[in-house]
Amino acid sequence: MSTNKEEQLQLLVASCREGDRKAQETIFSLFSRKMFAVCLRYCRDHDEAEDVMIMGFTKVFTRIDAYKGEGSFEGWIRRIMVNSALTEYRKNAKRMYTVDIDAVQPDTEAVAYQDDTTEMKYLLSLIQGLPGHLRIAFNMFVIEGYSHKEIGEILGITEDLSKIHVFRARKQLQQKIRNAEPVFCA
To answer: Does the record carry Transcription as a key word (predicted)?
Structure first.
């Protein structure tokens, strides 16, 4: 980020600390798309991801004083979004049921690989289709870059169980991709 943009961002953060609604709206506009994508990777669907993102931004603005200007502001927001998604997952985990992956019928709908965006949407839908505990560990390790030790500490599981979750998630994703019937568009 250029120095001018960094200065503008710091001014926005300072205004948010004073409760300036316009500054909050601007920060929301600047980061909402990226943060929605982060939330979507952890959530089951768009509605849940939107709810998590809104809860996350509420935390951002109520806890803005906790941001000390050290490190990336975007990274600080991202961490809040991931933590909000994990909180929502834990809250919903009590109401979730599990389904044996072998009992699930494969989706017979063809997948179109028209461009990178379509392929990314398809991959995201596959990740969202993973059981919650596998999806969370996979996202944290592969996408967010947490170590297995950190994942274990955050989720309250062993480091080895984190490795098993990521391994199983990868295997399930590979199987889903192998079973897909891509349609190539000219």
So the answer is: yes
- pLDDT at residue 61 greater than cutoff 70: yes
Do 4 and 92 belong to one domain? yes
Of 52, 57, 58, 30, the C-alpha closest to 39 is 52
Contacts 24+ apart (CB under 8 A), 152-161: 154/86, 155/86
- Largest alpha-carbon pair distance within the chain? 55
183 phi/psi in degrees, rounded to 5: -115, 120
C-alpha span between 88 and 100 (Å, rounded): 23
49: part of which helix (H) or strand (E)?
Answer: helix 46-62
> pTM, whole model, 2 decimals?
0.64
Q: Domain limits at 152?
A: 98-186
**Percent of the chain beyond pLDDT 70?**
82
- Same domain as 106, residue 152: yes
Please tell me what DSSP assigns to residue 149: H
- What is the arithmetic mean of pLDDT over 106-113? 37
Query: 21 pLDDT band (50/70/90 cuts)?
Result: very high
Calculate the alpha carbon distances from 112 to 105, 126, 150, 178 in Å: 20, 14, 37, 14
